[in-house]
Amino acid sequence: MLLRLLSPSLPGTLVDAPRHPACYAHATQDNGRRATLSVVLQSSVVGLTKEDRAMNRTNSPSLVGALLVGVGVLALLQNFGLLGGLAALLWAALGAAGGIAFLGAFLRSPDRWWAAIPGMTLLGLATITLIGTLMPWAAGAWIAGLFLGAIGAGFLLVFLTHRGRWWAIIPAGVLFTLAAVAALADVLAGEVIGAVFFLGLALTFGALSRLPGHEDRLRWALIPAGVMLTMGLVVLVATSSLMSILVPAALIIGGLALLYRNGAFAHHTGSKQ
Questions:
Q1: Domain map (residue ranges) of the chain
Q2: Which of 1, 181, 232, 273 could form a disulfide with 198, with the two C-beta atoms 3.0–4.6 Å apart?
Q3: How would residue 224 be classed by pLDDT, with cut points 50, 70 and 90?
Q4: 212 in the Ramachandran plot: left (φ > 0), alpha (ψ -120 to 50) or beta?
Q5: Is 10 helix (H, G, I), strand (E, B) or coil?
Q6: Half-sphere exposure of 192 toward its Cβ, with a 13 Å CA cutoff?
Q7: Rounded Cα distance, 237 and 234, in Å
């Protein structure tokens, strides 16, 4: 807007200047100053844009470098036994700081979508480290599920910031499924856990096939969704006590359907008449 106000092509320029010679000369000088200021401002804006782009390119390596330095320093201090009981807390603090830094870079520029994945991974790692240190009595299989779910959340953020990155739903769904499997490992039997895994994958591909605006393009996802759903149901039924009843019943129903289709019942009824 400021550049437009200062542009020589707007009213009050040389074209609109009065025809008196003195006024004409004054308007010419005024337009020259405005044109010079406009060029300076345009150059400044271009320079700031280039500087911002250069800063975006250098921020990521600097962030990774700072994180590596922190990891190296902590590892060195721990190896010399200088951290004592604070080692776990310091590792958690470093992981949280790194995760927040990566997520900050992701939020400032969603084009750097990859930063959401290490950001959520480091935050998840810091969280389970704190839980294992401060609440060891609460540790269990669900801790692994929490960590896997945090990584899956990173991929979900990649998709939510740009719906064109539909591929991120697949690793997100797989990781959420593995998180559920890990969290339920102490509660459910192993066979049921297998069914949960297949049903989770079926849900992932089913949701992928129903993405708004991608229904035709991602229709292929219905195939793995159907396969995983079938396998999950088979595993679930095979582990239940109803299997000894369902299998014979399915055989009887299938046999009757074949007989009906071939007209065996109609032929038998006609012969009686």
A1: 1-63
A2: 232
A3: very high
A4: beta
A5: coil
A6: 9
A7: 5
